[in-house]
């Protein structure tokens, strides 16, 4: 790997941050089709069972949450997150179980409530949700929705979901589903259960909406320097104040992989990252992936990849930079073999997370400028 420039690691005054021991560290999965160690594609049913095993390991090594996304594509097996999560609930004791993200625009909020209230019951209060509009749009034609209603669908369905969660019985009417009159849903949720976050990819309107509902904010940062999200966080806090809402938690979802050395992590991830972003370039008009771009994401962007110390240092830095109270690692992008995913989970839970908490709790380290942290990362990466 080349020596890091770390241009994004700049010294600045940081937003208020949660206590290091209160920060939630999660794993996010798209349940992607993977390959085995010989390079042969693994069948979808096996991938789903492997994902359950990954979540069971995450629980065993002390990771706080395991979250499954929602797609309707032949290379992702995450179209029924609640069923996979319920299976995981039966084999775990402690880990929180949620989505990353639920595409609420094309879901029925009544069904979302019943499925996840049931998940909360079978998991003994461990369910959580991230609701979003969806950056990939295959669910819209699949379920008969018009993309011209993209914003209105999410606004209406978030409104109904929050009423169901906060104010039963519900009397409600809207454009996109039949009305409800004095409606109760079961199972009932104990007060404070099933926390809902709003997932945002960079849209200011979505940030303001989260504040209007008084909901915590989850930033989906899949590329580029994370510092570019500071204006959205500042907008969110101003909007919370405008709407008379208390301060809420802020989280971030980003991709990454942990190995014993920086070079090993890059060697594992690069071919699969390249494959994913080659497809994205063809479908969405993005720039084609290159090794230089990959390295830039590792050094200065939003790819948390490398050894335990490299990844922990960068996560601690971004938590301080953005004032985060939650960090979700979308682990092992693309078709990374199950065995290597398990190794990443083990390192993330047993070594990275404790090291991040240590870095955030150390008063001496807290006073260190970010250029000093960058210099440490520079020296480390230049040796691999």
Question: Which helices and strands, and how do they pair?
Answer:
Blueprint: E1 24-29, H1 44-60, E2 65-68, H2 81-89, E3 96-99, E4 102-103, H3 109-122, E5 129-132, H4 139-142, H5 150-166, E6 170-172, E7 180-183, E8 196-200, H6 204-212, E9 217-220, H7 230-242, E10 250-258, H8 262-284, H9 291-299, E11 303-306, H10 308-322, E12 326-331, H11 338-361, H12 363-366, H13 370-381
Parallel strand pairs: 1-2, 1-12, 2-3, 4-5, 5-8, 8-9, 9-10, 10-11, 10-12
Antiparallel strand pairs: 6-7
Helix pairs in contact: 1-2, 1-11, 2-3, 3-5, 6-7, 10-11, 10-13
Structure report:
- The protein has 384 residues and is α/β, with parallel strands linked by helices.
- The protein has one domain: TIM Barrel (Alpha-Beta Barrel), CATH 3.20.20.
- 44% of the residues lie in helices and 14% in strands.
- The strands form 2 sheets. Strands 1, 2, 3, 4, 5, 8, 9, 10, 11 and 12 form a 10-stranded parallel β-sheet that branches.
- The longest helix is centred in the last third of the chain and has 24 residues, at 338-361.
- It is globular.
- 46% of the residues are buried.
Short overview:
The protein has 384 residues and is α/β, with parallel strands linked by helices. It has 13 helices and twelve strands.
List keywords for this structure.
two-stranded antiparallel ribbon, globular, 384 residues, alpha/beta, disordered N terminus, TIM Barrel
């Amino acid at each position: 790997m080349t020596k890091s420039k770390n241009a994004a690691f700049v010294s600045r005054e940081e937003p208020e941050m949660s206590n290091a021991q209160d920060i939630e560290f999660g794993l996010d999965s798209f349940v992607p089709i993977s390959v085995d160690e010989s390079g042969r594609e693994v069948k979808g049913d096996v991938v789903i069972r492997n994902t359950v095993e990954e979540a069971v390991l995450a629980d065993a090594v002390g990771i706080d949450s395991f979250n499954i996304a929602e797609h309707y594509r032949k290379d992702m097996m995450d179209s029924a997150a609640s069923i996979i999560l319920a299976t995981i609930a039966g084999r775990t004791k402690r880990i929180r179980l949620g989505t990353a993200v639920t595409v609420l625009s094309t879901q029925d909020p009544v069904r979302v409530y019943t499925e996840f209230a049931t998940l909360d019951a079978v998991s003994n209060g461990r369910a959580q949700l991230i609701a979003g509009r969806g950056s990939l749009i295959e669910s819209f034609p699949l379920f008969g929705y018009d993309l011209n209603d993209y914003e209105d669908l999410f606004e209406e369905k978030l409104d109904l979901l929050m009423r169901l969660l906060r104010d039963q019985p519900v009397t409600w009417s809207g454009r996109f589903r039949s009305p409800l009159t004095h409606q109760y849903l079961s199972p009932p949720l104990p007060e404070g259960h099933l926390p809902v976050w709003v997932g945002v990819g960079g849209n200011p309107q979505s940030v303001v909406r989260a504040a209007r509902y008084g909901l915590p904010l989850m930033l989906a940062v899949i590329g580029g320097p994370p510092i570019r999200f500071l204006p959205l966080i500042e907008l969110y806090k101003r909007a919370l104040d405008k709407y008379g809402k208390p301060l809420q938690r802020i989280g971030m979802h980003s991709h990454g992989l942990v190995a014993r050395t920086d070079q090993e992590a890059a060697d594992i991830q690069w071919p699969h990252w390249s494959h994913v972003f080659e497809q994205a370039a063809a479908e969405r008009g993005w720039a084609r992936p290159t090794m230089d771009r990959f390295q830039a994401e590792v050094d200065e962007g939003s790819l948390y990849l490398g050894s335990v110390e490299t990844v922990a240092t960068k996560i601690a830095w971004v938590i301080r930079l953005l004032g985060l109270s939650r960090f979700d690692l979308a682990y092992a992008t693309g078709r990374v073999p199950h065995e290597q995913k398990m190794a990443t989970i083990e390192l993330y839970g047993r070594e990275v997370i404790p090291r991040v908490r240590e870095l955030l709790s150390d008063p001496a380290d807290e006073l260190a400028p970010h250029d000093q942290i960058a210099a440490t990362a520079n020296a480390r990466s230049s040796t691999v």
